[in-house]
Amino acid sequence: MESLDLKVLSDALTWHRLGKAVTLVTVVETWGSAPRPPGALLAVREDGAVSGSVSGGCVEDDLIARIKAGRSEPLVRPEMLIYGVTKEEARRFGLPCGGTLRLVQERVTDGTWIEGVLTRTSAHQVVARTLTLADGSVTLQTVERGAELMLDGYTLTTCFGPHWRLLLIGAGQLSQAVASMATMLDFEVLVCDPREEYMHAFDMAGVTRLAGMPDEAVLALKPDARTAIVALSHDPKLDDMALMEALHSNAFYVGALGSRRNQAARKQRLTEHFNMDKVALGHLHGPVGLRLGAKTPAEIAVSIMAEIVLNKNMAGASAVVASHDANNAACAV
């Protein structure tokens, strides 16, 4: 599976290669309760076929009508559009009350940059695409995870690729389900399992397989605040050492599969054999996942990814608040 926005670019490239006129629409700014975040993409083919979304409502219908009506007058340069300025318009376009979208609409005249984005992101790179609003020219550059969309009035810079990483310990059926969902959620997914019988069967596009023991993989990865680590092998010989290293890292989320009884036994082992303190163990999510009453591997994967996304978004919100406070402090000096 692939990122939804990358799927939009892939569809746009396919249509362009077939000689179809393609318009790309990017959400660049939102106010209020707008349903799609900045960076969300919509591709519209000349006959009205679409890929992606910018609102999930009637904005798409209006954009399709505008684009189809202008087929005889190709878009010369990128254009800024605003939807939902008033409450009446918000209701008309299906936006939540007060929601407003600012969009950039552009014609895809050259698919080279899309090919570049797809190639780099398939290699797990994060790539920034800068669009010059005056003439529609595009440049690409590799950036660090966490780079954000920027609009300065002259250029629009959007980022593609995995901003977050997920390391899975164990390559069983559950790990495959989690990896599939995580990939769609724009995580770079890595899996480590020294058991050849499991690793041999784990063959998913876009997922990196790591050799060696899981604890060595954690150390080599150097987990940062955009890394999640989940132990799913259900084998203490593999999980415990990896969890010990993960809990001493900067990973924003560390989880382990197992019942409450198994988690209690795990914490006792880590305390007695590895002298782990209660503070570090307090960061362990176990049993892993939100309590959804999940039974099947797919349902358990949903619960795991739901908890990871919850913690990811909380971490992101905390980072924004910290940055805001730091800026205020700097301004006060």
Description:
The longest helix has 36 residues, at 297-332. The protein has 333 residues and is of the alpha/beta class. Helix 5 crosses helix 11 (297-332). It has eleven helices and 15 strands. 40% of the residues lie in helices and 24% in strands. The strands form three sheets. Strands 12-11-10-13-14-15 form a six-stranded parallel beta sheet, with helices on both faces. The chain has a five-stranded antiparallel beta sheet with strand order 3-2-1-5-4, sandwiched between helices. Strands 7-6-9-8 form a four-stranded antiparallel beta sheet, covered by helices on one side. It folds into two domains: 4-160, no CATH class; 164-312, Rossmann fold (3-Layer(aba) Sandwich), CATH 3.40.50.
Short description:
It contains 11 helices and 15 strands. With 333 residues, it is of the alpha/beta class. It has 2 domains: 4-160, no CATH class; 164-312, 3-Layer(aba) Sandwich (Rossmann fold).
